[in-house]
Write a structure and sequence with these properties.
It contains 9 helices and 10 strands. The protein is an alpha+beta fold. The protein has a 7-stranded mixed β-sheet, sandwiched between helices. It has a 3-stranded antiparallel β-sheet with strand order 1-2-3. Strand 4 and strand 5 form a beta hairpin. Helix 2 crosses helix 4 and helix 8 packs across helix 9. It starts with 6 loop residues before the first strand and ends in a 23-residue tail after the last helix.
């Protein structure tokens, strides 16, 4: 996947500038959606337990304190390792998908190199399934890895693909997914609807990153928003329900405000050096005076 030239990772998530070297102004679409809290405690616990049970050192760990701590430490990081490996694989698969689209648009591409990289990691099946999907649905690419901007709400992002399928313009987002026990690609997360609707609601598209030239977004009326689950065994495209787009747009805009509030609080604390929580001393002891004799 082409790294967005105007995006930079910050303490507040990924943010975009208007030109190369410019001031970072707005959060990315994925950063905004990331404000939506999810409880992953169960998954983290499962991954840690699985890693500990599969560790060859586990049987010997009971006789060595140091080895025991090593097994625990590695098991605790299992979820992060899996996440990082999945993200790297996602980048490789996205890179292949992008180059297939560039080839279809008669632009410079590196399809062969991208496929070879997947082969080296034992991931050729993802490319094979994508090729089958591409041949079956015959998309006509209009733009690949296009960076978009919305000034009104304040966000930017990079869309995987805009293409015509069956004569209809589609905004497309690829998601690399694992395979379940039935050998089927795992389902898409419904948060992809927010990502797609944020894409179609863009106001500008990047024309030149170096000069910071932007043009009006011409696909704001795209009738089909498509999430595509890319798996090792199959590819499963799913359309965002048009009746739910409005609700997901409102939700996305609310999350954008949450991101801004988080950043405002952090900025206020940093500028003022105030402590978020202050100690409280107990109140002074009460003094009990002797009662006066009424007589």
């Amino acid at each position: 996947m082409t790294q967005p030239r105007l995006a930079t990772q910050t303490e507040h998530g990924r943010m975009y500038a208007r030109s190369v070297g410019g001031e970072l102004e707005v959060p990315s679409i994925t950063t905004v959606i990331g404000q939506y809290a999810q409880d992953l405690g169960g998954w983290h616990g499962y991954m840690a337990a699985k890693a500990a049970l599969e560790d060859d050192r586990a049987m010997r760990a009971s006789r060595s304190v140091g080895l025991k701590h090593a097994v625990i430490r590695d098991a605790a990081a299992a979820a992060e390792r899996y996440r990082d490996q999945a993200a790297a694989r996602g980048d490789r698969v996205h890179n292949y998908c992008e180059n297939v689209a560039l080839r279809a648009m008669d632009m410079d591409h590196a399809v062969d190199d991208a496929r070879e990289e997947l082969r080296q990691y034992g991931e050729s099946a993802w490319a094979d399934r994508f090729d089958e999907w591409w041949e079956l649905y015959t998309p006509e690419p209009l733009a690949a890895e296009v960076t978009i901007w919305n000034r009104t709400v304040g966000y930017a992002g990079t869309l995987d693909l805009v293409a015509k399928i069956g004569g209809r313009v589609c905004i497309i987002d690829y998601k690399t997914k694992g395979t379940d026990r039935k050998n089927r690609v795992k389902p898409l997360d419904t948060k992809v609807i927010m990502q797609l609707v944020a894409g179609v609601k863009a106001e500008e598209a990047l024309a030149d990153a170096d000069t910071g030239r932007w043009v009006d977004w011409e696909f704001g009326d795209a009738p089909v928003l498509l999430g595509v689950a890319l798996g090792e065994t199959e590819v499963k495209p799913q359309q965002a329900n048009p009746d739910l787009l409005k609700h997901n747009w409102f939700k996305f805009c609310a999350l954008r405000k949450v991101w801004e509030y988080h950043r405002s609080v952090d900025a206020a604390l940093e500028e003022s050096s105030l402590q978020p929580l202050m100690p409280v001393v107990p109140p002074p002891p009460r003094i009990h005076l002797p009662e006066q004799d009424a007589s």
